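Structure tokens please, single chain.
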Amino acid sequence: MALESETVETLEAAALQLTPADRARLVDRLIATLDADPEVEEAWAAEVERRQVEIENGTVSLLPGPKILAKLKAEFERTTPCTPDSK
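Here you go.
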């Protein structure tokens, strides 16, 4: 079904009036309708399963996101030269 440009613009304008949560839900639904490569989907499913098993077996440990992000940011700032144009 081909939509006229005005219709797409109308849909976009209406979508932008939604709450962020409703926009996210709409995006999820739209993305789900796109053709996905079954091999890629299978590879991601296998990766998720592998990681879940590692977590459950204690092979790996989970790290707190905010703490790790702060550590990475500090490391990045420490190793990145600061020039007058970079700030």
